[in-house]
Amino acid sequence: MSTPIKILGISGSLRQGSYNSAALRAAQELAPAGMTIEIADLSQIPLYNDDLRKNAVPAAVTKLAAQVRAADALLFATPEYNYSVSGVLKNAIDWLSRLTPQPFVGKPAAVFGASMSLFGSARAQYDLRRILIYLDVHFLNKPEVMIAQAHERFDADGVLTDVPTREFLGHLLTALHDWTHQLKPRSHI
Ligand SMILES: Cc1cc2nc3c(=O)[nH]c(=O)nc-3n(C[C@H](O)[C@H](O)[C@H](O)COP(=O)(O)O)c2cc1C
Predict the structure, then answer these.
(1) What is the pLDDT of residue 1?
(2) How many whole angstroms from 84 Cα to the centroid of ligand 1?
(3) Residue 134 Cβ contacting ligand 1 at under 6 Å
(4) pTM here?
(5) CA–CA separation, 158 vs 130, rounded Å?
(6) SS3 for 2?
């Protein structure tokens, strides 16, 4: 039996009650056999400043870069802020993009997102895909998971209770599992 695929989950929201972070926790539960999901912490990453980078890369950035490098694939959960990704997520990506070697190169990835509107973060997801083209991330195209009207799909404790949404997320994880194996030689997993 091969080693389980290591996925790094990255939520673009820092708030305690974040639906996107809650959905990532649900993904940990729903992960198929042969997949583990660790969740990154973006809360300590400072605003990007090139002077800071030249002086000493902040520890939280170095840690995230190491987690991305160690992961077999990435799973982004993006909120939608003004039709795009959150500043928190873009800022973290900007930091990693300036490191050598650039940690995102060649990574298989999947994206989903939750928002309170009917669009379920669709516009942010497409922006994230576009941003990460330049950094050479290989996104799974389908299935697309847009968790619309998120406030109706989680309970007060942040548990994803909506059954169809749990199923969609499960399908995405299975597809990411297969995509990761497809992109990486089996002997490397
Ligand atoms: C600054 C800001 C901008 C937002 N813009 C959008 C938007 O463009 N589209 C949308 O569907 N929701 C928008 N929202 C609402 C978010 O979808 C909602 O706050 C969601 O819960 C954020 O994700 P989270 O629960 O993971 O924090 C916005 C929220 C904030 C704070």
Answers:
(1) 57
(2) 10
(3) no
(4) 0.96
(5) 30
(6) coil
